[in-house]
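Course assignment 3, question 2. Fill in each field.
Student: A.L.
Task: Predict the tertiary structure for the chain below.
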Amino acid sequence: MIRLRIGGVPEHYNMPWHMAMASNDPTSAGIDCQWTDYYEGTGGMIQALRDDELDLAILLTEGAISGISRDAPYRIVSFFSDSPLVWGIHVPTESALIDVNEIHHHRYAISRYGSGSHLMAYVHARSEEWPLHKLQFRVIDNLDGARLAFRNHQADVLFWEKFTTKPYVDNGEFRRIGEYPTPWPGFVIVASNKTLTLHADRVTALMKIVFKHAHLLSQSPYRVSRIASRYELEETDIESWLSYTRWCDKIHLSKSVLNETTETLKELGLVHQLFDTQQLYQDI
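Answer field:
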């Protein structure tokens, strides 16, 4: 039995992983799955991979690329989703900000540098042709940190997955003033270089299991209620989310998408111009 330590955000995107681990499939394949929720998001998982605390992680595509470009010891082994992540653009409810066009003069709350909340602020600002050097950031670690920063007037704007934050929009803590979809598929699966050297076959086997359960979930008549119940979200919100969300159903690496995403990050100064995109992935 081989132990694989897996990290992901505690959000609805990762439901297929929990279905797979609740089944007997990994055990039958000789894999002992140990899952850890990372409330700090992609940036936190990249640090855990650096510290040899994880073997596999489900990362935001842009964050995964940025991490590898800064010598993080992992490779992308597959896309996890074929659809974009839709980011909600949030402000405190009592904020005077009402128009997305006003936000670039204000302080962005980010979980950490290199996280999706950090990188997408740049990607969005570039799409609006705003001066990138004027963006201001406040590190808040996680969503609870963002709530505290808003209450204490320490940050003004937050990019976060819109259904994860919707309970705080509904209860009056946040106000969503806009949305921004990533211009590429939202999530990739990465594996540490050490794990790929020692256990590439088990990584492949586990991903096949997860994608099988992703397909089963997408076809299930109970998918809405199951996801809503596990993540304490409204069924109507899950229905809306599923209308544009597609998990991959097999191991899949679109090298052209990785190249295009990397070029965008290079234009933003978030990846060095000489970085070779062949360092991003490993076919398994």
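Instructor remarks: The first strand starts at residue 2 and ends at 8. The beta strands are 2-8, 31-37, 56-60, 74-79, 86-92, 107-110, 136-139, 157-161, 174-181, 187-192.
Grade: pending
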